[in-house]
Write a structure and sequence with these properties.
binds FE2/S2 (inorganic) cluster
């Protein structure tokens, strides 16, 4: 079974099972990892924002234009940010490391 490693906001690393074909968002939800995913994968929010480890970023399929548009609204955007609902597990991504952004809420604060 492939694995995904989530780095939580406090720096804790959690390695979890990542069934092929599931999105990073679905995998997070199965494991009680705190990614909101308000629109459940329909590209209508940016609350599933994750920061992909640079070594892994290149292996991901390019983001669609819709994903890019939504990402622009994400809080704490970085050069390797993606939407968790758009990263689908493949064999190749076994060991993927993604970090939770510092905050997806309090959009109006600083
Ligand atoms: S869950 Fe809304 S865009 Fe991913």
């Amino acid at each position: 079974m492939p694995k995904v490693i989530f780095v939580e906001r406090d720096g804790t690393r959690r390695e979890v099972d990542a069934p092929l074909g599931l999105s990073v968002l679905e995998i997070a939800h199965k494991n009680d990892i705190d990614i909101e995913g308000a629109c459940e994968g329909s590209l209508a929010c940016s609350t599933c924002h994750v920061i992909v480890d640079t070594d892994w970023y290149e292996l991901l399929k390019d983001a669609s234009e819709d994903e890019e548009d939504m990402l622009d609204l994400a809080f704490g955007l970085t050069a390797t940010s993606r939407l968790g609902c758009q990263i689908v597990m493949t064999e190749e991504l076994d060991g993927l490391v993604v970090r939770l952004p510092a905050s997806t809420r309090n959009l109006l604060r600083g």
